[in-house]
């Protein structure tokens, strides 16, 4: 190894050592931290407001299932189960009778009161049929400044009673029945439980305490588990309404770049459709034109579209008919002989007469010459026969 190569090798090794040392010093100055970034609720949690309640009941080893829609009301579960329905609204008579019988046989139904003015507002309102409805007086009551919730104490069997639960200040119940359990806050009824045969009906003014947003507050989870506990061997069914997003939101979430590309293409198309080339044409006059102007415009159109034969064909036919009437002896001649005879009679060039009568003009000058020659042939035949020129 030459001295130069040995020196170069030492320099490279030294640079590598210096670089490694600098990297080590830089890393030793860094501090490792764990950052928690809030990403909000999951897609499943946004779709199902009872997801947290479902998982809490599952941890308590209570059979539970959540469903979207009202199919479970058409296929009722066994009377050992518990049904939770958000705002059932007006039910068909046969559906209401089926639920009445299901509760009588031992089922537990938990519903949120629907909007109604009186207990008799809607015939199909299940809660109103049992004498429970939303109070209309709360809309007229002035709300406490900055207060949106009130706390109610609910007494239940077992340790830890009473339970503290928050209800909305804007919703309260009124009832004509005698409940076996009730929750009162700010002198207003917020929840009632009514016996129905072997089962029960629980009507809530506000079910927010069971949703994902509030189940972790106060004693909400414990009250939810107490109200929804099914009979031995039963299952809790949580029914919720799934909000169907606008189709535009679905497309945007699935393919945002395709939406952006389509919008840009639409803008480019709109711009190109509105762009013009050259100066604006003058607005045509709407005055009525005479016959000659219409004829001139029609002839110009036919000439520009290669239909000049339609312009000269009638004149050729009339010229030939006129000469056959004037000279009956020419009737048996073919086209060439007839043209030659007409040329001799009119003292015109035979080749020019043949082209005028039978050959298509190649350009505008030839067309003008043919038209002028046909005009002369007509005039000479008309003068000799006493006719008039066209």
UniProtKB/TrEMBL annotation:
Question: Taxonomically, which superkingdom?
Answer: Bacteria
Domain (DUF4350) spans 43-228
Please name the InterPro entries in this protein's record.
DUF4350 (IPR025646)
Record carries keyword Transmembrane helix: yes
**Keywords assigned by UniProt, alphabetized:** Membrane, Transmembrane, Transmembrane helix
| Residue spans crossing the bilayer | 6-27, 221-240, 246-271
Q: What is this protein called?
A: Uncharacterized protein DUF4350
The organism of origin for this protein:
Thiocapsa rosea
């Amino acid at each position: 190894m030459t001295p130069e190569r040995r020196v170069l090798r030492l320099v490279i090794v030294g640079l590598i050592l210096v670089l490694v040392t600098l990297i080590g010093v830089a890393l030793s100055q860094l501090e490792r931290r764990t950052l928690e970034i809030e990403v909000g609720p999951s897609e499943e949690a946004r779709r199902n407001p009872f997801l947290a309640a479902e998982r809490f009941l599952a941890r308590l080893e209570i059979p539970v299932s959540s469903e979207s829609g009202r199919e479970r009301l058409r296929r009722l579960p066994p009377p050992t189960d518990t049904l939770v329905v958000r705002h059932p609204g007006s039910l068909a008579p046969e559906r209401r009778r089926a639920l009445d019988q299901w509760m009588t046989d031992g089922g537990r139904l938990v519903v949120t009161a629907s909007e109604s003015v009186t207990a008799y507002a809607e015939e199909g309102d299940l809660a109103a049929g049992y004498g429970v409805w939303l109070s209309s007086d709360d809309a007229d009551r002035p709300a406490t400044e900055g207060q949106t919730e009130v706390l109610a104490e609910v007494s239940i069997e077992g340790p830890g009673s009473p339970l503290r639960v928050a209800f909305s200040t804007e919703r309260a119940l009124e009832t004509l029945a005698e409940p076996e359990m009730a929750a009162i806050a700010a002198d207003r009824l917020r929840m009632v439980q009514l016996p129905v045969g072997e089962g029960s009906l629980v009507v809530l003014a506000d079910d927010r305490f069971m949703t994902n947003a509030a189940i972790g507050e106060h004693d909400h989870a414990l009250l939810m588990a107490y109200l929804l506990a099914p009979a031995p061997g039963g299952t809790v069914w949580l029914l919720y309404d799934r909000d169907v997003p606008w189709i535009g939101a679905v497309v945007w979430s699935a393919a945002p770049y395709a939406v952006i590309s389509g919008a840009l293409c639409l803008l480019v198309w709109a711009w190109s459709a509105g762009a013009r080339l050259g100066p604006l044409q003058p607005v045509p006059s709407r005055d009525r034109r005479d016959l000659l102007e219409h004829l001139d415009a029609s002839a110009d159109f036919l000439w520009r579209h290669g239909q000049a034969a339609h312009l000269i064909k009638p004149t050729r036919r009339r010229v030939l008919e006129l000469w056959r009437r004037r000279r009956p002896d020419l009737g048996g001649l073919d086209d060439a002989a007839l043209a030659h005879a007409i040329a001799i009679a009119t003292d015109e060039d035979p080749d020019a007469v043949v082209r005028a009568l039978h050959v298509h003009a190649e350009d505008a000058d030839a067309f003008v010459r043919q038209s002028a020659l046909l005009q002369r042939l007509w005039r000479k035949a008309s003068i000799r026969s006493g006719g008039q020129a066209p």
